[in-house]
Amino acid sequence: MALRRALHFVFKVGDRTKTATFYRDVLGMKVLRHEEFEEGCKATCNGPYDGKWSKTMVGFGPEDDHFVAELTYNYGVGEYQLGNDFLGLTLQSSQAVSNAKRLGWPLTEVGEALYLTQAPGGYRFYLVDKEQPPKDPVQKVCLGVSDLQRSTHYWTTLLGMKVMEKNEEKKTVLMGFTDTQCKLELHDISGTVDHATAFGRIAFSCPREQLPDLEALMKKENQKILTPLVSLDTPGKATVEVVILADPDGHEICFVGDEAFKQLSMVDPKGNDLLDKAMAEDKSDEWFAKHNRQKAAA
């Protein structure tokens, strides 16, 4: 299982411009690549939407050794309803804290050298006010679960993660594939997990040959498979194979074949310019204003 690695979390964004400001100027992440699509993704990467959408990968470094964010923007959808499924992403960067203060981005001190802030759309980010490490500053992603024991079994026994830490008092379990990667924290919320419409997806890679076995295991264990093994095309880039699963609380999990993903995820030096160009050419806000209409709220 050491060959499996944590890749990214998918966030649906309604305001691409404000979102770009948050990731680039507040957190200090770089645009790694930007892609535009004319129709919905076969594996519903952009959610249950059929129309035009874009994908922007942002992070502190290449996806080979950094956990990054995938920002999906559906043209014509202005906002999404937050649930209690995604509980926050924690990263270490005193630079991000000072950026937020300088730009007047709201920050709340919630612990010693720990600040809570929000990305546009209300997604929670915890900033550890310590010098950014030379390795990946992203430490963990926290997801809400309704039954910690059941979820821990799923993620460890079926998906192969190992438990790093348990906190009975806080009702959390921290796990990962290796010590050096971004961790997954499960937090028992003592109730039903509501994904609303802003629900995200966490992605991991594994050797391509493991994908059919993973799918077969989930079938055997009567677990949910949202998208059986399928090939996804990106114009002008590598075709990847994925299996999309759902854990017992319905958290979406993508496993992608690592070999092709390494080609697809190469940093595109033009990524930042492509995002800026797409935002400049996106006249959807003006169109809705001119026609006295509001963008859809999902």
From TrEMBL:
GO terms for cellular component: mitochondrion. It holds the Pfam family GLOD4_N. It is found in: Mitochondrion. Keywords: Mitochondrion, Phosphoprotein, Repeat. Its main location: mitochondrion. Residues 5-130, 137-258 form the VOC domain. CDD domains: GLOD4_C, GLOD4_N. Interacts with NUDT9. Belongs to the glyoxalase I family. This is Glyoxalase domain-containing protein 4. The lineage of its organism: Eukaryota, Metazoa, Chordata, Craniata, Vertebrata.
